[in-house]
Design brief:
The complex is a heterotrimer of chains A (about 500), B (about 550) and C (about 180). With about 500 residues, chain A is mainly alpha-helical. Helix content of chain A is about 75%, strand content about 5%. A two-stranded antiparallel ribbon of chain A has the order 1-2. Chain C has one domain: Helix Hairpins, CATH 1.10.287.3510. The chains are: A mainly alpha (about 500), B mainly alpha (about 550), C mainly alpha (about 180).
Chain lengths: ~500, ~550, ~180
């Protein structure tokens, strides 16, 4: 087995193996657990970096293992895969550090970190999957491994959230399985191909292909929280903050959006999608989701719920970018996969810090909190401004490319949606920022935890500041090589052959 | 040597069973040694079959019709491997289980603590006290008898031998159920015995009909002579009806939940994992290799429909149960339904191989997954001092290994990738879609979703926080054996090619013939597939050289 | 109609009678006898099959099958009687509880208590109402003997199982 075959496997295994080992650890082996976790996370980042470098130099990394006649387990480091796997590897590192601080002294940490690592392995597998079946394997693994994280607290409310989460995602998995089996029956292959493989099928099968497309989009749309399949996401907010960060920014929701994009580009192909006329309904669904999520977010007083509805809205930008079907819009959607990830994880880290340190969970309790926790709130502010789409933050880049791509493709209405959504984003984020910085601080906070020398524990403070810095840098230095934008262009150049 | 390979799987456990019966304290050792030995024996048989094709053997050199014919093809070898894996795991588990239950002076995991166990019922208590002491011991000879008769059934070359081994199997199974000291178990054992005996007699009557018509018992000769007249049809009805009762196909499943739910957990694992499969194996063999199955398409549809009903009914009942073991038992009712779909699916020759091999693989993976589930549940309820689902609240904190074992077994039951259950379900799903039986495909998927429902009913409680007293510790053997077996059931999804290769030997359908009969469109599809692969490769290269 | 056909038809008739018995009768001993009637019916069909060679020597294969079948039937009957004996001793009843009462709800901790010997008088079998805990075994001896009589009648019908049931009959005597 050569290096080029081994590397994708190692990327998946670098979190899978530590995860399995962590399960075996006794609860009090904190140091061993931390070492395993961090070693796995750092190793994964290094391996992914090696793979990114290799692919940029024209190397290919792929691996295939036959499962059944005609069906294989395959990993392939396509550029788009790398974008997602890099995002998940880097954010996993930050989230692990954050989770260590967040869960300090709480029970069942071996279980938590074990499933946490498995969850990231599943995400890496989703990113690197070379065909739909491999994708499904890791997709279901993701569902199963996130359930124990969602119900981690073990309260009735957590169990209820877990049940709803499970019901939705399992249904999605079953729909996907049906679609994939149908596709295999119709097309005879499931391998992702840049430019898609369904386009070569004869015209009588187009009706079936439309159904398959719809089923695939519904199956992935459940995890991507497309309206009206989104209800599980706010319910899953009962999970601990690092899990929410993982669900929203790194793994679950992203996996759904990533799946939809791969279906459009690598299964059906852009031109064939236009021929079938399936993307316009998808674009409309995405637009509705964007507006609906933003509108609902306006009326949430619970900070995490407001962020959850914001996620519903923001993730659909990715889907919208793919559904508008033009190179520029695709760049916008693709790069938003990364940008939304780093911005949203910052917001969740910050919200977790507020809850953990001060017991602040509601927007109405946030008066003056900026002066009490300046580092956390500064990060929050940067990310929130990015979400609104202000330059020079990362979010601006995504929205700019989306809007100009929509104009390029002649879909002017999309610009309207984007503007309306930005206005709504501003409406639900700016009051928070105003209250946090310009209202007088409260005298008594609901809770005051042990915070160490800084405003809170260092392990809680550093991750949001780092991701906030990344938000700023991704926007400022978008033109540099290996920036998310640069990589998105690289991907799109291959998806839209001249 | 080949003779030995085919006879040993029957002879070794049967002889060991007798030895174990008189061996007193050594019986555990004998049983475990045989269980360990059986695995290489089964692999040896599989290897011989792979190397030399189907094996025939006449016991004692007596030829048909008076002698006993043994026959081994790929399906047989796979089933014997399945049985030996499950028996080994159950045997190891039982070591811990019976030692522990005897030490805890609680004769069965099903007898709730309370006045009934220690009450003043002098006669009743002394009986169960004295019975208790021998109870764990009786498990070993009975399980060996079960193993021997099971292997005998899989290896049978004639339909009368099948009857004998079915009956032996029933007797061993009834004995195993009766090991539990509870009255429910006793009642369930009696009910099961009566029903199974009647089922066997139906089968025997069918056998006598066939013999009267064709003058042979060898099923391969029967297959050649089979005609589709009235008496033959009556015989088919009698044979299948008798076996359906034993295989517990909905709506003839009524005896199953009580029997499997009240037996001691290692016995439940054997019953649900293996004994049900035995009856189904006979139907599968007769239907596709003896009966003129293309002319039974309507009956096949009926069986498939009952299978679909079983999936839905069993799953819904499983979700409704309050007791752990009944939940798992009803899950068996549902999973048996998947097996019967083959009779509806394989009526289309184009998809017959996928349906048939998928079903065989389903038997294998379900045997591992369901046994693991029963073993895990057995540990959980012993640890929790009660058999209700509520009782496992918080078990994930005290017994994570067992809970993960149940979860992994659940992955197999739900048919999620990459488990063996998924591979089987995938093959069945492909068959259903290609033969345009979309309804069955949807039922299969719905069954998977419902399975998630009942598996996570248990897991949800296990992950719940509790402030109650910590659960009792349980021996490591009882924690890790279910996990290993569950891992096997999941791992089966990754090594499906070799078992499928084995299954092709002597199979009634061949994958190549299915491709041929599918006609030109299929070939065109394949051609396109190859073409696409090349294109993809070219695309990669082009992209790689900017 | 040849003798063989007549035998076969009689066998089918017995099969039907036995089947009716096992469905309609609730007493477990009756059910066990009914299974023996069924097996007798099947054996009779098999015996009739020996005639299929028409005139020549009888076909030996069905004989072998009947002999083997009898052994199997004996074992099953013995096991059933053994289980029934234990069931009777623990519950004082000779009828299975309704399938519904084996449902999860009624298996709750009370189930053993409900059936425990000192509560026999509350049991469904009125004929055992007088049985007390201590002399329950003796008190039912008569009943047991009567049932044994039935068993022997059943075995007589079957013609072959007498010895086996006799062997297991030791257990019945302790009733």
């Amino acid at each position: 087995m050569s290096w080029s075959m081994l590397l994708p496997l190692l990327v998946v295994a670098s979190s899978l193996v530590p995860g399995c080992l962590i399960f075996l650890l006794r609860e009090d082996r904190v140091r061993t657990r931390s070492v395993l976790n961090l070693a796995g996370a750092v190793l994964k980042v290094v391996l992914v970096a090696a793979m990114v470098w290799g692919v940029s130099q024209g190397e290919t990394f792929q691996l295939s293992y036959p499962l059944l006649p005609g069906i294989s387990f395959g990993l392939n480091a396509a550029p788009f895969s790398l974008l997602f796997v890099t995002l998940s590897a880097v954010l996993w590192l930050f989230t692990t550090i954050y989770a260590m601080g967040y869960l300090k002294g709480s029970p069942q940490r071996s279980r938590f970190f074990g499933f946490f690592s498995l969850c990231v392995s599943a995400t890496a597998g989703i990113a690197l999957a070379a065909n739909l079946l491999t994708f499904l394997i890791f997709y279901e693994m993701l569902t199963l491994t996130t359930y124990p994280l969602v119900v981690h607290r073990g309260t009735e409310q957590a169990l209820r959230g877990g049940r709803i989460y499970l019901a939705y995602t399992v249904l999605g998995g079953a729909i996907l399985l049906l679609a994939i089996a149908w596709l295999q029956t119709t097309a005879g292959t499931l391998e992702f191909v840049e430019g898609g493989f369904a386009g070569s099928l004869a015209a009588p099968q187009h009706a079936a292909l439309r159904w398959i497309f719809a089923l695939l989009v519904v199956g992935f749309g459940i995890k991507a929280a497309l309206v009206p399949l989104h209800s599980w996401l706010p319910q899953a907010m009962v999970a601990p903050a690092p899990v929410s960060a993982l669900l929203h920014a790194v793994a679950v929701v992203k996996a759904g959006a990533f799946g939809i994009v791969r279906v459009i580009y690598d299964v059906f192909g852009v031109e064939f999608c236009i021929e079938l006329g399936v993307t316009q309904p998808l674009a409309i669904a995405a637009a509705i989701t964007i507006l609906y999520g933003s509108l609902r977010a306006l009326f949430q007083d619970n900070l995490k719920r407001r962020l959850a509805f914001s996620t519903i809205s923001q993730v659909s930008y990715i889907v919208l970018g793919a559904a508008v079907l033009g190179p520029t819009a695709t760049i916008g959607g693709t790069v938003h996969l990364v940008h939304q990830g780093i911005m949203k994880i910052t917001l969740f880290f910050a919200a977790g810090n507020l809850a953990e340190t001060l017991g602040v969970q509601k927007v109405s309790e946030m008066d003056g909190v900026g002066w009490r926790m300046p580092g956390t709130m500064a990060s929050f502010t940067i990310a929130a401004l990015g979400m609104i789409g202000l330059p020079p933050m990362a979010g601006f880049i995504s929205k700019w490319y989306l809007a100009s791509g929509a104009l390029e493709a002649g879909q002017t209405w999309v610009v309207g949606v984007l503007l309306a959504s930005s206005a709504l984003n501003a409406l639900y984020f700016l009051p928070i920022l105003y209250a946090a910085w310009f209202h007088p601080p409260r005298a008594d906070w609901p809770k005051s935890a042990d915070r160490g020398r800084f405003e809170t524990r260092l392990t809680l403070l550093l991750p949001p500041m780092a991701t906030a810095a990344a938000t700023l840098l991704a926007g400022l230095f978008a033109q540099l090589p290996f920036s998310p934008l640069d990589w998105a262009r690289f991907i799109v150049a291959r998806e839209y052959p001249p | 040597m080949p003779d030995l390979v085919i006879v040993a799987p029957i002879l070794v456990p049967l002889v060991a069973g007798v030895v174990a019966y008189v061996a007193g304290r050594l019986r555990r050792g004998v049983a475990i040694a045989v269980a360990v030995l059986q695995l290489p024996l089964a692999c040896g048989l599989a290897w011989e079959v792979l190397r030399r094709g189907p094996l025939h053997y006449e016991v004692g050199g007596w030829s048909a019709p008076l002698g006993i014919q043994l026959y081994a093809d790929g399906l047989t070898a796979l089933m014997i491997c399945m049985a030996s894996i499950v028996e080994l795991a159950v045997g190891v588990y039982a070591l811990g289980y019976f030692e522990w239950t005897e030490r805890e002076s609680q004769p069965s995991d099903h007898t709730p603590p309370g006045p009934s166990a220690t009450g003043p019922a002098a006669t009743g208590t002394t009986t169960s006290e004295s019975a208790k002491r021998s109870r764990g011991g009786s498990f070993w000879p009975l399980s060996l008898l079960l193993a021997g008769s099971l292997n005998g059934l899989f290896l049978s070359g004639d339909i009368f031998n099948l009857y004998i081994s079915l009956e032996l199997l029933t007797l061993a199974a009834v004995g195993l159920i009766g090991l539990a000291a509870s009255l429910d178990a006793l009642a369930a054992a009696l009910r099961y015995l009566l029903i199974a005996v009647v089922g066997s007699l139906f089968y025997l009557l069918g056998v006598s009909f066939l013999y009267s018509l064709y003058g042979t018992l060898d099923w391969q000769q029967l297959a050649m002579r089979f005609e589709f007249d009235f008496v033959s049809r009556c015989a088919i009805v009698l044979l299948v009806l008798g076996l359906l009762v034993k295989a517990a196909l909905f709506p003839l499943h009524f005896w199953l939940p009580a029997a499997h739910g009240s037996a001691p957990s290692p016995a439940s694992a054997l019953l649900s994992g293996l004994v049900l499969k035995a009856a189904f194996f006979v139907i599968l063999r007769l239907w596709f290799e003896v009966f003129p199955h293309p002319r039974l398409a309507l009956a096949g549809q009926l069986l498939g429909g009952l299978g679909a009903a079983a999936i839905l009914w069993g799953s819904l009942q499983a979700i409704r149960q309050r007791r752990l073991k009944l939940l798992v038992a009803y899950s068996s009712v549902a999973q048996i339904g998947y097996l019967f779909l083959v009779f509806a699916l394989a009526s289309d020759p184009a998809v017959a191989w996928n349906a048939w091999s998928g079903t065989a693989y389903f038997m294998l993976s379900h045997a591992c997954a369901k046994s693991a589930a029963f073993l895990a549940v057995g540990s959980l309820q012993l640890a929790a001092r009660g058999g209700e689902i509520e009782d496992v609240t918080g078990a994930a904190a005290d017994h994570p290994v067992t809970v993960y074992a149940f979860a992994l077994a659940g992955v197999g039951l739900m048919g999620l990738p990459p488990s063996g259950g998924f591979v089987a379900k995938w093959l069945l799903l492909r068959a259903a879609l290609e033969s345009h039986q979309v309804g069955l495909a949807i039922v299969m998927l719905a069954g998977g979703v419902l399975a998630v429902g009942y598996v996570f009913r248990v897991l949800g409680r296990a992950f719940a926080a509790t402030d109650g007293a910590p659960q009792r510790p349980i021996p490591r053997l009882m924690q890790w054996t279910p996990l290993v077996l569950a891992l096997v059931s999941v791992g089966l999804g990754l090594v499906a090619l070799q078992p499928l290769e084995l299954l092709r030997i002597g199979a009634p359908f061949a994958p190549s013939s299915s491709a041929q009969s599918a006609g030109l469109s299929e070939q065109a599809g394949l051609g396109e597939q190859a073409g696409l692969g090349e294109q993809a490769g070219l695309g990669e290269q082009a992209g790689a050289n900017p | 109609m040849t003798t063989g056909t007549l035998y076969a038809l009689c066998g089918l008739g017995l099969f039907g009678i036995g089947l009716g018995g096992i469905i309609l009768r609730t007493h477990l001993l009756h059910k066990i006898i009914a299974t023996n009637v069924i097996s007798s019916g099947v054996f009779l069909v098999l015996v009739a099959l020996a005639d299929r060679t028409r005139g020549g020597r009888p076909d030996p294969v069905p004989h072998a099958m009947v002999l083997t079948g009898i052994v199997v039937a004996i074992s099953a009957t013995a096991l059933a009687l053994g289980l029934l004996r234990r069931f009777y001793r623990e519950t004082g009843r000779c009828r299975l509880p309704e399938p519904g009462s084996l449902a999860p709800g009624s298996l709750a901790p009370g189930s053993l208590e409900r059936w425990s010997p000192e509560r026999r008088s509350e049991g469904g079998d009125a004929e055992k109402g007088n049985a007390e805990k201590g002399n329950g075994e003796k008190g039912n001896a008569e009943k047991g003997n009567a049932e044994k009589g039935n068993a022997e009648k059943g075995n007589a019908e079957k013609g072959n199982g007498g010895e086996a049931s006799g062997g297991k009959g030791d257990g019945c005597r302790t009733w």
